[in-house]
Write a structure and sequence with these properties.
Elements (H helix, E strand, L loop, with lengths): L1 E9 L5 E8 L5 E2 L13 E5 L4
Amino acid sequence: MKKVKVTVRCNRCGEVYTLRGRRDKNGHIHTGFRRCICDNADDFTITPDPHP
């Protein structure tokens, strides 16, 4: 698995988190991020950083 820098944006309150995640063989990114400070647990936009 390859480490990638990602931006997680909450679609409810707009809070932005910058995290490191791992990309698996299928291309999915896993960050371990569970919940925003507004208690949102499922409405996020995860964007990989374009610069490696």
